């Protein structure tokens, strides 16, 4: 069993929108889906997901971020690929009129966070957006385990906290 670690960012603005990447139909990973900015962590980033997401955001948008909040850690078993996936999910608020540069990965677009459920997004993004919309006003970090509930993807959430 392999372990794959990823880091993604939900970059929001004051209009309640999130910046997403529209994957092209030819892309091997999540073709035609709207996805948060991010990707797989490099070997030298495995102990520093924040460093990984700063790199990914710069590569995919041209933005340099310095204020990120780790909000979610999601675990998923991808049995058909003999893999456990760990996704570190960060949030950051962007200033108005920040220049956004689309790159080779796909086109960037703004989507209302409250409407994300209706968009062509992954089940992980859908669950994260739903939970985030219900828990906007706290600084907690949540850990989630993705599973099937009668054939429908769902995530069971818990607060990540020190037991001491």
Automatic annotation (TrEMBL):
Q: What is this protein called?
A: Nudix hydrolase domain-containing protein
Q: Which PANTHER family match?
A: ADP-RIBOSE PYROPHOSPHATASE (PTHR43736), DIHYDRONEOPTERIN TRIPHOSPHATE DIPHOSPHATASE (PTHR43736:SF1)
Which residues, if any, are the signal sequence? none
* Pfam families, per database record: NUDIX (PF00293)
Domain Nudix hydrolase stretches: 2-134
Q: What PROSITE patterns does this protein map onto? A: NUDIX
Family that this chain belongs to: Belongs to the Nudix hydrolase family.
**InterPro entries xref list:** NUDIX_hydrolase-like_dom_sf (IPR015797), NUDIX_hydrolase_dom (IPR000086)
What species is this protein from?
A: Cytobacillus kochii
């Amino acid at each position: 069993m392999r372990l794959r670690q990823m880091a993604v960012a939900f970059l929001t603005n004051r209009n309640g929108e999130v910046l997403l990447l529209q994957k092209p139909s030819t892309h091997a990973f999540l073709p035609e889906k709207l996805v948060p900015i991010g990707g797989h962590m490099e070997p030298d980033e495995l102990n520093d997901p924040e460093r990984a997401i700063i790199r990914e955001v710069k590569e995919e948008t041209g933005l340099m971020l310095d204020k990120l909040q780790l909000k979610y850690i999601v675990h998923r078993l991808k049995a058909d690929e003999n893999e456990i996936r760990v996704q570190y999910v960060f949030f950051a608020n962007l200033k108005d009129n920040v220049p956004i540069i689309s790159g080779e990965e796909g086109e960037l677009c703004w989507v209302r966070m409250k409407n994300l459920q209706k968009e062509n997004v992954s089940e992980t993004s859908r669950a994260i957006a739903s939970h985030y919309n219900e828990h906007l006003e706290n600084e907690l970090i949540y850990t989630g385990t993705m599973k099937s509930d009668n054939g429908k993807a769902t995530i069971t959430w818990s607060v990540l906290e020190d037991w001491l």
